[in-house]
Specification:
Radius of gyration: 18 Å
CATH topology: Rossmann fold
Protein name: Phosphoheptose isomerase
Strand order of the largest sheet: 2-1-3-4-5
Number of helices: 7
Number of strands: 5
Distance between the termini: 36 Å
Pfam family, one: SIS_2
CATH superfamily: Glucose-6-phosphate isomerase like protein, domain 1
Shape: globular
Keywords: Isomerase
CATH architecture: 3-Layer(aba) Sandwich
Largest sheet: 5 strands, parallel
InterPro entries: GmhA/DiaA, SIS_dom, SIS_dom_sf, SIS_GmhA/DiaA_subfam
Organism: Bradyrhizobium shewense
């Protein structure tokens, strides 16, 4: 279909949508500093024999899984994601959904690990409880949130990323973009083979 035949309403929507994404992913010195600090934190975890543990719900869990794979495979930083269905159902059954990730952190995290907590709203109780558990274990914590500047997750990490958007897809895309930038910063280049 030629571009000239695009429905004007669709074009208007997509112009606005891409503009929102552009504004959300616009990087200033503050974001550069947080991405650089994320790299430093991940490399410190590796040097200490630790791992980077990614957590999230729904789309954020999918992003967490993707990031853990890429960080481990492409950047050689040990990483994992708490998204196994058996672990989730076991711990949620025993401790409740709001506490299952906190118990996963308690059972699996160790000194030197870093927790990356992803929640678009910044209000997910299971993510907040996991961050509290990580804090009691003295783990480094990186947070990614959005939606509302007053969300409780926004200031709980050593490094905190916030996306000023009310769109879940824009927030999630921006979270993934920033973390992929941090992974590529660890690698030292933006283009490399898949294997």
């Amino acid at each position: 279909m030629p571009a000239e035949s695009v429905d004007p309403d669709h074009k208007s929507f997509l112009d606005d949508y891409v503009g929102r994404l552009h504004r959300a992913t616009a990087i200033d010195d503050g974001v550069f500093a947080r991405i650089s600090a994320t790299r430093t934190t991940w490399l410190r975890a590796r040097e200490q024999g630790g791992r980077v543990i990614f957590i999230g719900n729904g789309g954020s869990a999918g992003i967490a899984s993707h990031l853990a794979i890429d960080l481990a495979k492409n950047a050689s930083v040990p990483a994992l994601c708490f998204s196994d269905a058996s672990m989730m159902s076991c711990l949620a059954n025993d401790y409740g959904f709001e506490d299952w990730i906190a118990h996963a952190v308690r059972l699996s995290a160790r000194i030197g690990d870093c927790l990356v907590a992803i929640s678009s709203s910044g209000r997910s109780k299971n993510i907040l409880n996991a961050v509290a558990q990580a804090r009691t274990m003295k783990l480094d914590v990186i947070t990614l949130s959005g939606m509302n500047a007053g969300n409780p997750l926004r200031n709980l990490g050593d490094v905190n990323f916030y996306v000023d958007s009310r769109s879940y897809n824009i927030v999630e895309t921006t979270h993934q973009f920033w973390m992929m930038a941090a992974i590529d910063l660890v690698i030292g280049r933006a283009e490399y083979p898949a294997s």
